[in-house]
Design a protein that fits this description.
about 160 residues, mainly beta, three-stranded antiparallel β-sheet, disordered N terminus
């Protein structure tokens, strides 16, 4: 994710703005992020979409390989009124220091095409403490929808 995108996404989370989704012409790009397998939305078949040809795992910074294990998608659903996808996340701090987390989730349609993304964050999470957060998308989802982690950022609380 480009730094400016992260700043805009964080601003969207803090302000609750609805118009923070990428332009419509870019919201159907195939994902290039190899990450945690997609979690189907509630009521959708449980088979995860296979990775697209050419998907490659992004290298993780040294010492950060375990941070993705700190986040679990516990629910993937689509709102019945707005038709926006969301992912419920359980973040568990497995490090030895209080940490801040930023989590980016990707929403995929039944064919595995990216239809949007959402972010969740928590600050000052003590070692072994859990936090339940929600990553909310703002694009319309129809049919089978799945969720997957695409980036987890963890850093020690100053």
């Amino acid at each position: 994710m480009r730094p400016i995108t992260l700043v805009l996404a964080a601003a969207c989370l803090l302000t609750g703005a609805v118009a923070c989704e990428p332009p419509a012409d870019s919201s159907t790009q195939k994902s290039t992020a190899a990450a945690v397998p997609a979690q189907p939305a509630a009521g959708a078949p449980s088979a995860a979409a296979p990775p697209a040809a050419g998907d490659a795992a992004a290298p993780a910074p040294a010492g950060d390989g375990d941070k993705a294990k700190d986040v679990e998608i516990t629910k993937c659903s689509v709102d019945s009124t707005l038709h926006w996808p969301s992912a419920e996340l359980t973040i568990t701090n497995h490090s030895s220091k209080a940490s801040n987390y930023m989590v980016q989730v990707e929403f995929l349609d039944g064919a595995g095409t990216r239809i949007g993304e959402g972010m969740a964050a928590t600050n000052g999470l003590a070692p072994n403490q859990k936090s339940v957060q929600k990553a909310q998308g703002t694009s319309t989802a129809a049919g089978k929808t799945s969720c997957r982690l695409i980036e987890v950022t963890r850093y020690a609380t100053p």
